[in-house]
Amino acid sequence: MANVRALAAQTLFQVVDKGQSLTAQLPYASQKLPVKDRALLQQMCYGVLRYLPSLENYCQQLLDQPLRGKRRVFQFLLYVGIYQLQHMRVPAHAAVAETVNALKSLGAPGMKGLVNAVLRNFQRQQVTLEQSANEIMVCQYNHPSWFIKKLQAAYPETWTDILEANQQQAPMWLRVNQRQADTVTYAKQLDQAGIDYTLDESHPDGILLDHPVDVTKLPDFPTGASSVQDAAAQMAARLLSPQDGDLILDACAAPGGKTCHILELADAQVTALDADEKRLERVTDNLNRLSLEALCVHGLADEPDNWWQGEQFDRILLDVPCSATGVIRRHPDIKWLRRATDIDELAALQAKILDNIWPLLKPGGTLVYATCSVLPEENHQQISAFLSRTDDAKHITLHAQDKVEQPGLQLLPGITDGFYYAKLQKL
Length: 427
Ligand SMILES: C[S@@+](CC[C@H](N)C(=O)[O-])C[C@H]1O[C@@H](n2cnc3c(N)ncnc32)[C@H](O)[C@@H]1O
Known about the structure:
alpha/beta, N-utilizing Substance Protein B Homolog, Chain A, Alpha-Beta Plaits, Rossmann fold, 3 domains, eight-stranded mixed beta sheet, four-stranded antiparallel beta sheet, 17 helices, 12 strands, 47% helix, binds S-adenosylmethionine
């Protein structure tokens, strides 16, 4: 049987050094483990990615030179070991012994002495090491410096709150399928299942669980009574306000969370478009579980000539590809996979999607623009620029401070994920 710490080190190597996404790597590693060890694997991978700069810094102090080439995976094993000592409730002697033990399944028993010495030295020098790392901003906040600088510029008062929120475990929200039961009725089913939760009036379809649970424990989940979706993401369909009989385009639809929510709220004809054929299969899976129907189309939102049939839509949801900087706590690998230069490229693609999709909207129709980003370039600056170059676009106010000069609603990570919404109408 595979060793959980060895698998964590290999997974982290794939993510940090090879640029693979954690979402893709974790299921692959998990299936090699007994079910009881899978949560531990996830905890160690998430934890190391949350605290990567500090862990790198400690190892820099504790090793004569960093482990390179084929020995790189042992560097990640050291991070796994130190993360356990610093942040997990594993007894220290077990954390050290089990980390050293992982070397057997990595085929490197000869590394035992070094790994053991580094972990013991970390224990001895922990306070001093933490103090000196904390003097370096990137280690203090455990985020890349380009991102810290962007947040400081955009949120001079609250940037540290955002960084701190990104280091927390994300809450679990359910979306109740209103076709099967209203939110209060489903909440009673949760009571019977012994699952504790909070209701929140501002999210009419949402239930916030006190503790994350496995979906197999949720009442009637396989038959579509509820879905897992953050409350901020649930706002998309409500803002779009679909009506029976509407022709709707969900232009960046996969894996289909918002497509399904739209269809739970109205008998609409929805086209679910996505550039990624594989991800589009997940839209179909989600529609099937919820017994809903949509037309799934593989194509690019910025090139509608290749797939559009010519009939304009009543409503369009543009949940555009973005930096995902509002969901770092759910995907801590984003901090290390994204580069500062990605933001300009993403903003250019978002502008192209907006410009090329706008002609597909009927006069009088509504477009909701959404990102899970906290960066103004992708959000209010993007929509301001679009409004100023598009004569027939009218800005619809979502709240008292939603002004043309700084349009839209910016949510920051906290009780919900970080998200941005703007609502536009075609004149
Ligand atoms: C934020 S995700 C969408 C999440 C989805 N709306 C949901 O709620 O489940 C963005 C999606 O845009 C897709 N995408 C990226 N570039 C695209 C393009 N040029 N045209 C259409 N879809 C694109 C990606 O494959 C990805 O599935």
